[in-house]
Amino acid sequence: MSTSDDNEGLQYWVRWQVPVCALIIAAPAVVAVKFIKKLKAEPLDHTDFWTPCWKNLNPFWLLLYRAFAFVCMAWVLREVVAWTGAFSFYFYTQWTFALVMFYFALGTIVSVYGCLLSSKKPPPGKVKGPVKLKSQHAQEEIEQKVRFWGYVMQITYQTCAGAVMQTDIVFWCLLVPFLLGEQFHLTPLIGFLHSLNAIFLLLDTALNNLAFPWSGFAYFAVWSCVYVSFQWILHACCFTWWPYPFLELRTPWAPLWYFICTIFIHLVFTLNYAYDESNKCV
């Protein structure tokens, strides 16, 4: 769809809605970044990243589950990309789906390292002298790497939680009931794209031993603001079509839509944690 208004060029970006919406985009991102910097890192044992919360469950089963989830999501994403090409990543849903897939890929690798550490750990009293010191040093190095990537995995996990909630709730509660048949058709592939992310993440939550403080939604706020900024850059450079109607800046209602879809959602989660857990901040 192309009209004379679509080709306004620079004139599109000098309207009053642009600086107002830009402030609405930047505000939650700045607040979230400052909040993240002030957070006190929770001390976690490196085993928390790969051991299940169920004590009687072997970590190997968590490894298998994460690998299975990654393979399934990789197949779905491959089918979506084969169907629509690189244009697939024009949408927030595909961003979120790829992020969840990255979480399971990282989780699989960390689980592999964890299972290897567990299997190679010598029984107490069996190793003595220099060999024992060398073995401990090598194990500490591996544990440091596992701990670093485990924290990356945890941040990704916390970001995914908010993003998945937003995409799937909007899709199943708003788009499907009101726009199905008018603007899109529900196919099995689209259904998988908007359900497997939540299903796999919820099951992993039921199995894993990761902490989930409310502060994790601050990462979600930054993630969403990065996506909106990405859309603005694309629209300024080459695209004349917005993937979501509320991103359109031409309408006088744009600031209201941006406020509802960014600041309100993000601050509800972030400030809720700040109110209840402020004693954990430095």
From TrEMBL:
Gene Ontology CC annotations of this record: membrane
Transmembrane segments: 16-36, 57-77, 89-116, 155-180, 186-207, 219-244, 256-275
Keywords: Membrane, Transmembrane, Transmembrane helix
The UniProt record lists the keyword Transmembrane: yes
Classification via PANTHER family: OS02G0130600 PROTEIN-RELATED (PTHR12242), TRANSMEMBRANE PROTEIN (PTHR12242:SF38)
Protein name, per record: Uncharacterized protein
Organism in which the protein naturally occurs: Carpinus fangiana
